[in-house]
Design a protein that fits this description.
Strand content: 15-25%
Largest sheet: 10 strands, antiparallel
Structural class: alpha+beta
Shape: globular
Number of strands: 12
Helix content: 25-40%
Radius of gyration: 24 Å
């Protein structure tokens, strides 16, 4: 009863906050043209004054995106770039209600047990003004895949579905088996290597690499646009370089260093998890060119050929704009651009900061593999079910989709 009351109070509080936010937006938009011009001039002057002791634009601080905006625009909003106030209010109400959700599939099934995380573990922020983070193409959608990328994606999907074919997930036609079909006979492909280096979860525990990157306490790296558990970045500048620490996921924190000496990228033979970042200033904007990614990383299907051009611009005393153009001609038919706005967080309130540590995967991976070997040994002796009939790859089933996505 106490849990229900707490969730109700939390939902009401969020709805009330949303109303205040929308009212604030309405008041701001009601400013006269003259007031808007004066405000813009004041902001420009304050930004120009934000310099480091050695004269560079000052981007330092702890920054986060305080609103939720989907990466891609939902087809529901077609060519609508901005939400109306009414749409944002409705989305805030619907999403606040999801905080108390705990819908489950049939009790006792594998998928019921897999739904270990309910909505209480997720972050739900106010809906942002834009219908997508993608600003180019104008439709707010990721460009079409090249034929080569489509073929690779199909091979990956076919392999993963083959390992699931004899599980309840496919038998019950769950979303986790979308595109596949049920076959009571375990797939003969269980002993195969995946088509390429694995970065996602598969229904097998032969090696640590059979788990997803987060299962192994690894992060997807760049580009990073946040997620259900929040995302922060701390920027520190020196006279010779810039460092950015990312606090993302559930302990998958990581740091990147931006070289500012004007030198060329590393040789193509040297590959790094977060790529090779080379920066320079264009006025008040930090421009960073990022190449040399490792083929063991993956962003939307792009790996070693990923190329990013980032633009970081201080737009006010407490605001920072991030614009990144993403390109890989082997994956997408054209480059595409994302824009994100960050708000500065209090240095005083965050003065005690413990570095995120992902320990679950480091402890769990050996145990998961040992458990699988024990289940296989028991089955070989005629004890227990065939472990290949169990689904250990599908997660979060039974939790409703966020209407914003």
């Amino acid at each position: 009863m106490r849990g229900r009351t707490s969730r109700l109070m939390l939902t009401v509080a969020i709805a009330a906050t949303a109303a205040v936010l929308l009212l604030s937006i309405a008041r701001t938009s009601a400013q006269s043209p003259t007031a808007a011009v004066k405000s813009s001039a004041t902001t420009a002057a304050s930004v120009a004054a934000l310099k480091t002791p050695w004269g560079e634009p000052d981007l330092q601080g702890i920054w986060t995106d305080e609103s939720d905006t989907p990466l891609q625009r939902s087809p529901k909003y077609a060519n609508q770039e901005l939400f109306t106030d009414a749409q944002r209010a409705e989305l805030d109400r619907d999403r606040a209600a999801l905080l108390g959700r705990d819908r489950r599939v049939e009790r006792g099934t594998e998928l019921d047990v897999a739904g270990a995380y309910n909505a209480q573990f997720m972050s739900v922020k106010h809906t942002g003004a834009r219908t997508s983070l993608i600003v180019d193409p104008p439709n707010g959608r990721i460009p079409s895949l090249t034929p080569e990328a489509q073929k690779r994606a199909a091979q990956d999907r076919e392999f993963r579905l083959a390992l699931l074919q004899s599980t309840e997930t496919c038998k019950n036609k769950s979303v986790g088996c979308a595109g596949g079909k049920y076959d009571a006979t375990p797939s003969p492909r269980f002993a195969e290597l995946p088509p390429r280096y694995n970065t996602a979860r598969m229904n097998r525990r032969d090696n640590p690499e059979d788990g997803a990157l987060p299962d192994r306490c690894l992060t997807g790296g760049l580009p990073e646009f946040g997620g259900a558990t929040g995302s922060f970045r701390r920027i520190v500048q020196t006279t010779g370089g810039i460092s950015m620490f990312y606090d993302v996921g559930q302990g998958q924190g990581w740091q990147r260093n931006i070289v500012m000496n004007g030198g060329p990228h590393l040789p193509a033979s040297i590959r790094q998890w977060y790529g090779d970042s080379r920066g320079h200033w264009e006025g008040n904007t930090l421009v960073v060119d990022v190449t040399n990614f490792s083929p063991k990383t993956d962003y939307q299907g792009s790996r070693e050929n990923l190329h990013l051009v980032e633009r970081w611009t201080r737009t006010g005393p407490n605001t920072l704009e991030y614009v990144v153009t993403i390109d890989d001609s082997t994956v997408w038919m054209r480059p595409w651009t994302v824009k994100q706005e960050f708000t500065r967080q209090s240095e005083q309130e965050n003065r005690i900061y413990y570095e995120p540590r992902c320990i679950e995967g480091n402890y769990a991976s050996p145990g998961l593999m040992r458990g699988q070997r024990m289940a296989e040994a028991a089955f070989a002796q005629g004890k227990g079910p065939d472990p290949r009939l169990a689904d250990n790859a599908t997660d979060f089933v039974g939790v409703e989709d966020d209407p914003l996505q």
